[in-house]
Amino acid sequence: MVHQECINCKATYSVDEVVYFCKKCKDILEIKFDKNELAQNLAASDWKTKPLSVWRYRPLMPIHESTKLVTLGEGGTGLHQSPNLGNELGMKHLYVKNEGENPTGSFKDRGMTVGVTKAVELGARHVICASTGNTSASLAAYAARAGIRCTVLIPSGKIAYGKLSQAMIHGAKVLQVRGNFDEALEFVLKLAEKHKSIYLLNSINPFRIEGQKSLGYEICEQLNYEAPDRIIIPVGNAGNISAVWKGLKEFHQLGLIKKLPKMTGIQAAGSAPIAQAIKTDSDKIVPVEHPETIATAIRIGAPVSWKKAVNAIRESGGTAETVTDEEILDAQKILARIEGIFVEPASASSIAGLKKLIKQGTVAKDEKVVCITTGHGLKDPDTAIKQCEKPVEVDAEISAIEEALGLKNQPIIAR
């Protein structure tokens, strides 16, 4: 029977109960399925005839059959074989799973379609989140689709305008908190506990994770039901790496894939409590009080899902690494210029991390590797513009354009 379960003391709760933390030990929850029940759900469905998307996997989601879905057509993003980048790094089997192709431009849509659907199923009329940007944009869009009220708390001055504009245009009530993300999250948790009419949809909500696990399913299907050797993921609040690992394990338990990949998390050097815990073989993280990085989407010092992330990395035999802002920006530029894939800085951390791990010898060049890029580059256009050459202004004359292009003194070749 599908239920919510504490990751620590294993206390269980109904999937129709609104609960964010275990009532016994205060740890976080996850959705648990019975393996046989999952297999029966799949066998009784026509899931393989559906388009590649989050809801292709409805039999594996904790949503009642009669519930109307809140969807914008999320999932089904491209798994791009990347030969140019592969040649640059000396790898033959490199893929980029570009989550910027989702409706609001980030992987958050996978979790939000399930989370908001569950909110509506539970009768919620007001949803809330704390966000560094992408979560607010996604929640605002899905709340608008569902016709329910939305409030987002963001750290003041710490959010890219591309993301802020999305939250605003979709009609969310946007509150800028004079503090960081971790403080904003603390406030929304208190609000949701105090005002039961408000439904919390940060990644601490296990229904969000259920949507995001579809990313793991899709990668395997796009590789003809063969898991890669390694999946590299940017890590901020740590929900995504946990979710992908959950999806992969479920596919493995169902016999749909024969092996499991190594999960590899990448954090910005100025915001890396999980990477430090992995490197020091610690059972706990040391929160970063003042996280700093140009990659705003992963500027989180106290990730709420750290236990799940650390477990995913260790259970899979993977690792975690840190990258500097300079390495992130370099990777963003390289990916755009040799593969034509424009991602926001946080997304590029997976590419920067791969490059670093290859140099260290941690990643072998014959591995089949999937790098997940989590958000579109237009989420943060200012950062992209700042690291590029300014447009050259010329007079409205053909000679001036030829001179700017270095064509003025070249001989004309007859055809």
How does this structure look, described?
This protein is of the alpha/beta class and about 425 residues long. Helix content is about 40%, strand content about 15%. Helix 12 crosses helix 13. The model has no long low-confidence stretch (mean pLDDT about 95).
Q: What's the arrangement of secondary structure elements?
A:
Layout lengths: L2 E4 L5 E2 L15 E4 L2 H9 L35 E3 L1 H7 L3 E6 L9 H14 L4 E5 L3 H13 L2 E7 L5 H9 L3 E5 L3 H14 L3 E3 L5 H7 L1 H9 L7 E5 L4 H15 L8 E7 L4 H7 L26 H10 L3 E5 L1 H15 L5 H16 L7 E6 L7 H6 L11 H7 L11
Helix pairs in contact: 3-4, 3-7, 4-5, 7-9, 8-9, 9-11, 12-13
State the major sheet. 6 strands, mixed
Classification by helices and strands: alpha/beta
Task: Label the overall shape.
Answer: globular
Strand order of the largest sheet: 4-5-13-10-11-12
The chain-level mean pLDDT equals 95
Strand content: 5-15%
Integer-rounded radius of gyration = 22 Å
The total count of helices amounts to: 15
Low-confidence stretches: none
Write down how many β-strands occur, each being a DSSP E stretch of 2 or more residues: 13
Subunit arrangement of the protein:
single chain
Cα end-to-end separation: 74 Å
Roughly what percent helix?
A: 25-40%
Task: Give the H and E element order.
Answer: EEEHEHEHEHEHEHEHHEHEHHEHHEHH
